[in-house]
Amino acid sequence: MRILLTGKNGQLGRCFQDVVAVSTHELFAYGSSELDIANADQVAAIVAEVKPDVIVNAAAYTAVDNAEQDQAQAYAVNEQGTANLAKAAQALDIPVIHVSTDYVFDGQAVEPYKPSDATNPQSVYGASKLAGEQALAAFCTRYLVLRTAWVFSEYGNNFVKTMLRLGNEREALNVVADQYGCPTYAGDLAKAILQLCDRYQATQELAWGIHHYCGDLPTSWHGFARTIFTKAEQLDLLKNQPKLTAISSEQYPTPAKRPEYSVLNCATLTELGLLPCCWLDALFACLDKLVDTK
C-alpha cells in the first residue's frame, strides 16, 4: 500500500514513520519544506505523481498562542491546506485520514465530547482546525477525521519534554489544575492511523466521518505533571522533583483560550476495535526512550 504522509517532521509524523517502517507499506513522507500544503498546485502535482492509496494529513499550524496574531498563516495551513489535499484526493478518488483537535470545542461540557457534539472553538487555532474539517467534508467524499488531544512523544516540543526541562531548572513550578483532558501518545495515535490504513487496504472501506482518539484516563495538567515527575525521578531524568503548586487558568493567562474540559469520547473507534491508548504506559515508554537518548 502506498501512503502519502504530510507533516513528517512533527510529533505524529515522526511516530508514523516509525510504525510504518516495520510494516509492509510504502511511505512517501513530506515536510513543509518539500510540500507546502497551502500551495494548491504543488499539492496537486505531488499527489498525482505519488498516486497514493491513502493520504494521511498530519501537517498543521499548531502554535496555539501565535495563531492569535498570525491568523492568516493558521488558516492558510489548517483550512486552505486541508482543502487543497481534499480536492487533489477527490480528483483521483483517494481517501484522506486527517488529524484534528479538541480545540474545536469550547470546553464547557460536563461529560466526554462525542464526535457529533456541537463545536464552538474559542481560539484562532481551534477555529482554523474546524474550518479544515469543514473544507475536507466539502471537497472530499471519502475522508476520516481523527480529533485528538494533549499529544506528547519523545519527539519535538510538548508538555512532557517541557516539564522535564523545567523540572531540572527549577525547584518549584506552578501548573494549571482546572483544565482537564486525556494525554495522547503520538506513537499510539500513529498505530491507530496505521490500523485504519490496514483496514482500508483489506476492505476498501472505512467508517467515514469524524471520530475521536485520545488517552484513556482524564487528568489535569497539574496531575499530568506530577505523574511525569514521579516516573522521571525513578529513571534519573530528574535530580529531584520540583515542588508543584496547583493554580487556576486565571493565574496563568495565555493569548489563546484553552478548553477547560476537553475529554473526548472515543466510542465510535472502540466499536471498530481501536481502543484509547493507556497514556500511563505510553508515558513510561516515552520516558524510557528519552533515557536512551540522554
Automatic annotation (TrEMBL):
Residues 1-290 form the RmlD-like substrate binding domain. Its cofactor is Mg(2+). Pathway: Carbohydrate biosynthesis; dTDP-L-rhamnose biosynthesis. Keywords: NADP, Oxidoreductase. Pfam families: RmlD_sub_bind. Gene3D superfamilies: NAD(P)-binding Rossmann-like Domain (3.40.50.720), UDP-galactose 4-epimerase, domain 1 (3.90.25.10). CDD domains: dTDP_HR_like_SDR_e. Its EC number is 1.1.1.133. GO terms for biological process: dTDP-rhamnose biosynthetic process; O antigen biosynthetic process. SUPFAM superfamilies: NAD(P)-binding Rossmann-fold domains. It catalyses: dTDP-beta-L-rhamnose + NADP(+) = dTDP-4-dehydro-beta-L-rhamnose + NADPH + H(+). Binds 1 Mg(2+) ion per monomer. One of its GO terms (cellular component) is cytosol. Belongs to the dTDP-4-dehydrorhamnose reductase family. Catalyzes the reduction of dTDP-6-deoxy-L-lyxo-4-hexulose to yield dTDP-L-rhamnose. This is dTDP-4-dehydrorhamnose reductase. It comes from Marinomonas fungiae.
